[in-house]
Amino acid sequence: MTDKNKKSLHVKTGDRVIVTSGKDKGKIGNIKKVNPTEATVVVEGANMVTKAQKPQPMAGIQGGLIKLEAPMDSSKVMVVCPACEKPTRIKHDVVDGKKVRVCKKCGEQLDV
């Protein structure tokens, strides 16, 4: 993977986010996975899809319909600030020579 294809995202794995559009608008969950090359994120409990799973007896996997979270575009989520508990945009500040994410509403650091 080259740095050219890697996009800078406003969210990181483990962030608490709210979905801002689509069928799951208003749902709050944690980010499980981030894909910076495609600018997508996987949010717990949001964008659920049903997938047909073939049985694999050697691996011990039972067949049937399974529900799992599908990736969604990162622009459809907003970070929920841990301090003010509101969905917010973020800004980047330099503190002690280190770039950190800061809440636009209350000014609290998101990176601990």
Report the CATH C-level class of the largest domain. Mainly Beta
The ordered string of helix (H) and strand (E) elements is EEEEEEEEEE
Show unreliable segments: none
Q: What would the average pLDDT be, to the nearest integer?
A: 91
- CATH architectural group of the largest domain: Roll
Describe what this molecule looks like in 3D.
By secondary structure, this protein is mainly beta. It folds into 2 domains: 1-80, Roll (SH3 type barrels); 85-112, no CATH class. Helices cover 0% and strands 43% of the residues. The protein contains no helices and 10 strands. The chain has strands at residues 16-19, 28-35, 40-43, 48-53, 64-69, 72-73, 77-80, 87-88, 90-95, 98-103. The strands form 3 sheets. It has a 6-stranded antiparallel β-sheet, with no helix packed on it. A two-stranded antiparallel ribbon has the order 4-5. A hairpin with a 2-residue loop joins strand 9 (90-95) and strand 10. The protein starts with 15 loop residues before the first strand and ends in a 9-residue tail after the last strand. 13% of the residues are buried.
Strand-helix topology:
Blueprint (H helix, E strand, L loop, with lengths): L15 E4 L8 E8 L4 E4 L4 E6 L10 E6 L2 E2 L3 E4 L6 E2 L1 E6 L2 E6 L9
Antiparallel strand pairs: 1-2, 1-7, 2-3, 3-6, 4-5, 7-8, 9-10
Key structural traits:
single chain, mainly beta, SH3 type barrels, 2 domains, 6-stranded antiparallel sheet
Quick structural summary:
With 112 residues, this protein is mainly β.
